[in-house]
Amino acid sequence: MIVSSDSKYSMQRQPKRITSNALVLFVRMLIVTIINLYSVRFVIKGLGGEDYGIFNAVVGVVMTCSCVFPVLAISVQRFYSYAMGEGAWGRLREIFSASVNIIVFSLVVIIVLLETIGLFFIREKLQIPVERMEEAELIFHLAMVTFSFSYLQIPYTAALFAHENFGIYAGVSCLDCVLKFVVALFIGKVCFSGLTTYAVGLSVVSLCTWLCYVVACSKYSECRYYMVRNHGIYKDLLSFSGWTMYGSFAGVGMIQGNNILLNVFFGPLANAAFGVAVNIYNAFASLSNTVALPFRPQMIKSYAAGNFEYLRSLFFANNKFIIYLLSCIAIPLVFEMPMILDLWISKAFTEMSVFSSLFIVYAVLLSLHNPITILIQASGRIRTYHLVAESIMILCLPVTWVLFRMGMPAYVAFISMIVLCGVAHVARVICLKRMQGTFSLASYFSSILLPCALVAGGGGGVSLIIYVTMEPGVLRLGLMLLASPLVTLCLAYFVGMTSYERSMVNEIFRKFLRR
């Protein structure tokens, strides 16, 4: 397909827009990650190990339903961006109003399921001390309130993403993070118990965040609700969401399902270790999404406009930037995880260190799917892709259950996740080749996997030398955190990037220096 010069959607200035959005999101990610990780220290100190484990186990039951979050968010974003790429601006309000109806209806269904099946599971299956059960049920209901307001944010964040207004998104999410940090500081300083204080605080914060998004999106004409009569839009949104739901269920199910299995087989302390590891995983997932988000609208709009050469360059750049940034952080953390946890948590134990290191490996491997999934979603041909790849991923839960029944240690849950994630990625690449005839497996290997392996190998080699030649301590940690990322980023820039990709990086630095 050839794009005419007078097309409503011009690609000429889009690379600069991507770099500008990437800079905003990167700053947002740094602020949110630092505050979130620092907050964990106060949460664990205020709650204690057992209560922190109880909180994670109970909230984990509610969060099994969070698989619908990315499903509807991605679906609405995709239809927004595709309509913009086609120039069908009048359809945006219809998409917004239909998404609101779908979200409200599905939220009612989720609440009913949680109040019946979820409550039964907490009472009968989780390892919670009898004297704490009443409070655990209260935490469960407060977690549902938090979940509900977070769920209602989806139509508004989708509008912000489609308009590529990432500044507002960054500002609101930073405010959300700061408020949660304030809640963590109040644990143990009010008349309520620590668990209740924390749960109530998170519910209030989620309400405030939702209101901020409603106010921020009031400037968009399409964010005005009206009763949608066109039933076709519901069919389109739900059809796209259905298979995306299956994919999201596999991802969320692996994490929250393993959290529940750890409670059943190993008790609340295993959940405490898992909770700390999840915070580290979330930091890596946030970085991966930070890199992918500025590319997503442009990739979908490029596909809709038929500019496949530009789409290909975005796909390659997106893959590399994600792996390079994750590698420069992941490599030193894996080597020095025990020391980092001792300095961060001060109550770290062996399981916490092992869980965290393995979760990092899983996060880096999982991040490889992001650009591939965006391409598949842009085409709309998602059924086979999700059916094949996510069927492999969801096998993690029965495999982990069998391994636990055989008496295997808790960390095998992460081994199972990593192995199946690798197998699923192979399936994703094969699906992309079959669905996109122009996609080349040889090019994917030579232009993405090979340079990424060389860059990560160089950074890992430097880290290994430091690790074996120096005594454990703060000095080795400091040198590791300095030298490994520096070598990784230098190799990425001079060896692992094309001239076009280096120009994007240069543009980010120029914008950063001007600010």
Structure description:
The chain is mainly alpha-helical and 515 residues long. It has one domain. 82% of the residues lie in helices and 0% in strands. The longest helix is centred in the middle third of the chain and has 38 residues, at 268-305. Mean pLDDT is 80; it is low at 1-13.
Give the number of helices: 20
Question: What's the N-to-C terminus distance?
Answer: 39 Å
Provide the domain count: 1
Helical content stands at: over 70%
* Radius of gyration computed on alpha carbons: 23 Å
Strand content: under 5%
Q: How would you classify the helix and strand content by structural class?
A: mainly alpha
**Count of extended strands:** 0
**Helix-strand pattern:** HHHHHHHHHHHHHHHHHHHH
Stretches with pLDDT under 50, minimum 5 residues: 1-13
Largest sheet: none
Summed over residues and divided by their number, the pLDDT gives a mean of 80
Silhouette: globular
